[in-house]
Every structure is written in C-alpha cells, then in structure tokens.
Amino acid sequence: MLASSPCRCTIQKQMIDPLSQPKTPAADTGEVTGEPQLHDLVPFVAGDRIFAVFADQVEGTAEARVPAALPNAPPAVLGVVCVRGRMLTVLDPIAVLTGEPFGWPATLSAVIALRGDEQLALAAQSCRDTITIAAEDIQPSSQTNNEGFESAALGIARYAGEEITILRVDNLFAAAVRRKERRRRRF
User: Fold this and answer.
1) Do 55 and 166 contact (CB within 8 A), yes or no?
2) Does 182 have pLDDT greater than 70?
3) Beta-carbon contacts of residue 149 (< 8 Å; ≥ 6 apart)
4) Could you tell me the pTM of the whole model?
5) Is 57 exposed, middle or buried (0-12, 13-18, 19+ CB in 10 A)?
6) Which structural domains are found in the chain, ordered by start?
7) Which of 44, 90, 48, 43 is nearest to 69 (CA)?
C-alpha cells in the first residue's frame, strides 16, 4: 500500500525530463521566452546525501518494505519488493553512483516506486515534499563516470541551502549492473 502521510511526498503536476524534451522554436533561434522552464522534483534522503528524481518519473512511495534478496546481485541491487501488486527491483542510490553500498537495515524506511518498463524503485531513509526548481538551477554533471560508463547522475541542484543530486532514471539500472560486470572474472 502506498503511503503519503509520513513521507509527505506529493506529486502535483506533470513535467518533462530535459534529456527527452524536443527542441522548441525559441530554443532553435536563440530567442528568450522570459519564462523559466520549471521542473518538479521528488527529493529523498539516503545516507548523508539528498537525491531527487523528476516527479513525472515517480509512481509513488511506500513505507516499511523488506526487500527479498536476489542471489549474485550487484551491490547496488538490494532486492525486490511488492508495491501495488508490482514487483520492483530496489536500488541503492549511493551504490549506483559511488559503487560503495550503504548499510541499509533489513526493513527499508521508504521506497520510491518509479514509472517505466524496468520496474525499479529507489531505497530511501525518508522522502520529502515535492519541490519545483528552474532548469537553469540544475548544474549538469559529467555524462561519464571515472570508469568511462554513463553516469546515473543528471546534475546537482541547490535548494534551501542543500545540495541535491538529481538522478537519471533512464540510466539507473544500467549503472547498477555495469559495476557488477566490471568485477566479473573473465576466462
């Protein structure tokens, strides 16, 4: 069952991922429309970091889930949980970005269910209210990480004095699995 009261996570309106947005005539000609492009984000806490995903990529949140472990899974994959009758693979956002797993308890405080065919969710210690930021407030991060793979981080935003890492939902699973592939012995 999805919970919204303790997480206070509300999704108010649809928004567009900047990576998948088609160019507008104003963008092609260099004209300035005068209105900033706004994005709704769903921020959440994992470890000592604050992450966020675009609100239109979030199906909902759930509380107190115990992930069923998957054998031989990479460190970023915590297991699977059932949310609204869907089995979702739960990823550790810290391990996806850094390769170092966070010490999650057996019962996850919050799980953020994501939309999409990959059926993913993100582990969180807490979920915050939806925030709205301007597109120019997102500082793009490098598209590749230190190992030469595409990064799962879209960029960094500062909001209310805090630094928020915005995740690319379309690259989360690939980033989690690649770290496992790198460690596999080859014969």
Assistant:
1) no
2) no
3) 174, 175, 178
4) 0.74
5) buried
6) 37-183 (2.40.50.180)
7) 90
